[in-house]
Design a protein that fits this description.
Distance between the termini: 39 Å
Shape: globular
Strand order of the largest sheet: 2-3-4-5-6
Structural class: alpha/beta
Helix content: 40-55%
Strand content: 5-15%
Low-confidence stretches: 289-352
Order of helices and strands: EHHHEEHHEHEHHEHHEHHE
Radius of gyration: 22 Å
Mean pLDDT: 79
């Protein structure tokens, strides 16, 4: 039997394959072919950069500390729906120092990759456990206090583009909402330049809250004072909480290094008829063999009808909401997953 498309377990938040497939479907407006191509490309990227086991790889202490000093961002907790809340202090980003210290795009991407895998392999599973169902989206609060046009150097723009591309291509639909606090005329000017690099789905989730008073009132109403730092009108000791999250990330990496799990056995994607879904390369090989033998290869038909069946109640709720554009909303309605023994795997070089 042909091996089907093998899905990395590490990219499947909370072990919920339905939710993962649904995110890729939403990112491509429920077009099954485009979603499948996006998923294949992301799997190839993960193999190339070693994303599955990146938390087992040591970080360069100098560059890691420098990234944390020049970009003082952090989680602050979980909202009422157990979305992790991530705070970006845009005005505190010191891109000029990063550039002066010789931090390259590859170094930034390597650190950001660890942040994203920490989110997917540690933070979101923790949120899911607390929620009692898969929670695979985060809320981002961006504080624009101190942001100036001089911050928008060529280096900063380039870094923004490469990080945005990494996230949208490989971690699609992980954003629940983005709140921009203390946004004045400067932010509006900068956003006009940068929004072109952000996909429309993410842009639609951006909420610009206005000035100081309006921002504080909106954030406190949405999250409460215990989840907002004092500089945004809340009661949270930001630096203390930030250090706790950094320690948590370091502890997760240290544990993986001491007790490496290695790459976990993948999942295989099946179609409604129970046959493994073939990758494009596998389909081409099958076509060539069938043609040489005079036979026709079997065709894969993913269901294009509306359906509500799913292996999880959460996926069922997702399937019944929103416009599906004529495609079956959950690709998982036509899918089953089964554990496969992985083929021999070689870790890809790590940039950092």
């Amino acid at each position: 039997a042909e091996a089907g498309l093998q899905i990395s377990r590490e990219m499947v938040v909370n072990g919920d394959l339905d939710a993962t497939l649904y995110r890729f479907l939403r990112a491509r407006k429920y077009n099954v072919q485009l979603s499948f191509a996006m998923l294949e490309k992301s799997l190839a990227w993960r193999a190339h950069v070693g994303a599955d086991t990146i938390l087992e790889q040591p970080m360069d202490a100098h560059f890691s500390n420098l990234m944390r000093q020049c970009r003082p961002s952090s989680y602050t907790g979980f909202d009422k729906e157990y979305h992790p809340i991530f705070l970006e202090r845009l005005g505190k980003l010191d891109g000029k120092r990063l550039e002066h210290e010789g931090v390259t795009d590859d170094v930034i991407l390597a650190y950001h990759l660890r942040e994203m895998e920490f989110m997917g392999q540690v933070v979101l599973p923790e949120a899911s456990a607390a929620a009692g169902h898969t929670q695979d989206r985060t809320v981002t609060v961006m504080d624009a206090t101190g942001l100036s046009l001089s911050s928008l150097t060529g280096f900063a723009q380039r870094v923004f583009r490469v990080i945005t591309a990494m996230d949208s291509d490989n971690y699609p639909e992980c954003c629940h909402a983005i709140y921009i606090a203390n946004a004045g005329a400067t932010f509006s000017a900068i956003w006009k330049l940068l929004s072109a690099f952000v996909d429309k789905g993410t842009r639609d989730k951006v909420h610009v809250l206005g000035g100081v008073k309006a921002s504080q009132a909106a954030l406190l109403d949405a999250f409460g004072p215990e989840l907002m730092p004092t500089f945004l009108g809340g009661q949270l000791d930001y630096e203390a909480v930030r250090q706790q999250w950094l320690d948590k990330m370091d502890a997760a990496i240290a544990q993986r290094q001491q007790q490496p799990r290695g790459k976990q056995p993948p999942l295989v994607l099946h179609a409604a008829n129970g046959q493994p879904v073939q990758s494009q390369q596998q389909q081409q090989q099958l076509t060539q063999r069938s043609s040489s033998s005079g036979g026709l290869p079997p065709k894969l038909h993913l269901s294009h009808t509306h359906g509500t069946a799913s292996s999880t109640s959460a996926a069922g709720e997702r399937a019944s909401s929103g416009d599906d554009g004529g495609w079956a909303t959950p690709l998982s309605t036509a899918s089953k997953c089964a554990a496969l023994t992985p083929a021999p795997w070689r870790p890809a070089p790590v940039c950092m």
